[in-house]
Specification:
By secondary structure, the protein is mainly beta. The protein is built from 4 helices and 32 strands. The two termini are 24 Å apart.
């Protein structure tokens, strides 16, 4: 993933930040006076891991993970992360969902030079707003090798409505040295593509198809070696669910309990009670349940469209002695929560009328292994020009047979679902666009820079499904 430098200079918005720039960033511009700085060190390196399955392989990790350590800060803190690259390749870190200053966004070739092996980089950004976020490498397919972790911003005021909480990173794994990018078994982009593109393994002939994953893990452990989440009868339990998988959408259900969705991509929603929650790559949902049904239960997942995924997380009540947890069943007629069934908690500024709108047709996977927006393959893709202060609408239409979790860097957007009444919207940063469906998002252009916008299926991103939102300079030269 790199962009032609000349192309960028033409746009007049080139930002290439080295380590020096991080130090030179005008702190006072965005750090509240008196904010305390929280410093973390993330060392990217190769490790032996086995997800608890007894088949060791080499994964890529931060600080010995996967996953990387949870970064937990308080709203208003300045976060300072020193990245040390102990990998054999260049790398960067992206703070997924947090609207950080552009130079801190961690996209190689767009917001910074990739950090070379042996090199380091200092990221600095304010922890704003509160919510559940993730961080991950934005270089190539490194996320699918294990380079991710959770980033939790706790609210300044602690009105905790729950008794205990767990962060769950939901992961898909090819348990071979080097992880997903080195998997030998790959699946065709779609059933159709498989028939038509037969024999083209997506190697040599184009970008790699996504792996056939052989393990699904939570926080780096796969069933049956996932340690149980302990609860006590009467507890209100909060789960921060993070879509850290590279190419898997999960439909989650907790046996014996309904789930109440409280936050989507870090933002509060009007609480919705559901049996099943759909979570895609890059999405986060906070859910709560009341521990009112003592036993030994499994939180399990269906992989959207493919049957039981193997992702299993045991939940054990204190004092209960049972050796086999009860799995969830998935009969017809369950309540399913997706972005379509949620709406933002009241109190948000109403989105304005769109000042500018761009159509984004998502396709690919039929005749080739490329994935496209408006028929174009990144970096030969659209530049979506915006001006600071504008309301910008993106109208997705998915003309392909697969779902695409679309992610915009640097901004939250409102999902304006045609199924929702016009006064209803949902604030997110990643939204699943289902096959043959339309979804519109609208965002306020309030964070100047050059921002990546792409499908969060890593293999689709690498195969071209990406473009750029570019702020026109105020002076207007060259734009
Ligand atoms: Cu989570 Cu462009 O990334
Ligand atoms: Cu996609």
């Amino acid at each position: 993933m790199s962009i032609n430098r000349r192309d960028f200079l033409k746009t007049g918005g080139l930002v290439l930040a080295g380590t020096a720039l991080a130090g030179a960033w005008p702190r006072s511009a965005w750090s509240a006076p008196g904010a305390r700085t929280r410093e973390f060190r993330l060392r990217a390196e190769l490790v032996k891991t086995d997800l608890g399955l007894g088949r060791p392989f080499t994964a890529w990790s931060y600080n010995g993970g996967p996953p990387g350590p949870e970064i937990r800060v308080t709203q208003g803190d300045m976060v300072r992360v020193v990245l040390e690259n102990g990998l054999p390749e260049p790398t960067t870190i992206h703070w997924h969902g947090l609207p950080v200053p552009n130079a801190m966004d961690g996209v190689p070739g767009i917001t910074q030079k990739p950090v070379p092996p042996g090199g380091s980089f200092v990221y600095e950004f304010p922890a704003e707003p509160a919510g559940t976020f993730i961080y991950h490498s934005h270089q190539g397919l490194q996320l699918d090798q294990g380079l991710y972790g959770a980033l939790i911003v706790e609210p300044r005021r602690h009105g905790r409505g729950h008794d205990r909480e767990y962060t769950l990173l939901l992961e898909d794994w090819a348990t071979v040295d080097g992880g997903g990018p080195n998997a030998t078994r790959r699946r065709p982009p779609s059933p159709m593509g498989g028939m038509m593109g037969g024999g083209m393994m997506g190697r040599g002939g184009g970008p790699p198809w996504e792996p056939v994953y052989d393990a699904y893990a939570v926080n780096g452990r796969a069933w049956p070696s996932v340690p149980p989440l302990m609860v006590k009868k009467g507890d209100r339990v909060k789960l921060r669910l993070c879509g850290a998988a590279s190419a898997t959408i999960f439909d989650l259900r907790l046996a014996g309990h309904a789930l109440t969705v409280t936050h989507a991509d870090g933002n509060p929603v009007q609480p919705v009670v559901t049996d099943v929650l759909r979570i895609g790559m890059g999405e986060r949902y906070d859910v709560e349940f009341t521990a009112d049904n003592p036993g030994y239960w499994l939180l399990g997942a269906y992989e959207n469209g493919l049957g039981e995924s193997g992702l299993k997380v045991p939940i054990l009540y204190q004092g209960v002695k049972r050796s086999q947890p009860e799995p969830p069943d998935f009969p017809r007629g369950l309540r399913l929560a997706t972005h379509e069934s949620l709406q933002a908690a009241p109190g948000l500024e109403r989105p304005g009328e769109a000042d500018v709108a761009y159509r984004q047709v998502l396709s690919g996977g039929m005749h080739s292994s490329y994935w496209t927006i408006n028929g174009r393959v990144y970096p030969d893709s659209d530049r979506l020009a915006v001006r600071q202060g504008q309301w910008v609408r993106l109208d997705y239409f998915n003309r392909s047979p697969m779902a695409h979790p679309m992610h915009l860097h640097g901004h939250f957007f409102r999902v304006m679902n045609p199924r929702l009444a016009p006064e209803r919207w949902l604030t997110k940063d990643t939204v699943i666009v289902d096959p043959m469906r339309a979804v519109s998002i609208i965002f306020k252009a309030d964070n100047p820079g050059n921002w990546f916008h792409h499908c969060h299926n890593l293999y689709h991103m690498e195969a071209g499904m990406a473009d750029l939102v570019l702020y026109k300079s105020h002076k207007g030269e060259g734009t």
